[in-house]
Amino acid sequence: MRTSDDFERPVVILTGLGHPAAIGSAMEAYMFLADWPASRRDAVHGFALKACLAAIRGEIEPDTARGLFASWAEKHDLLAPDIAAFAGSRREGSRGRA
Fold first, then answer.
1. How far apart are the first and last CA of the chain?
2. Buried b / exposed e across 76-92, counting CB within 10 Å, b at 16+?
3. Among 5, 45, 61, 72, which is most buried by a count of CB atoms within 10 Å?
4. For residues 5 and 62, is the Cβ–Cβ distance under 8 A?
5. pLDDT higher than 70, residue 97
């Protein structure tokens, strides 16, 4: 196992007024989840929080925690759109290449 809790790829989420933030490690994800209002926490939040803590401790791979964090972010509409996917679909549409 890696000794670092860094993700292979960051999870880009939208915070505040829709500003993107790159979460690049289990520690960053854990801190974000720990700051989430208690009244808005659910089971997925709990799984993601525990997974991040396990990754920080070296008990699981960081990218396992990344997957749970990304799933949680997607469920709460925080996951930023994939810019590359938009760029690809924009260049080649139903009417041909732009």
1. 45
2. eebbbeeeeeeeeeeee
3. 72
4. yes
5. no
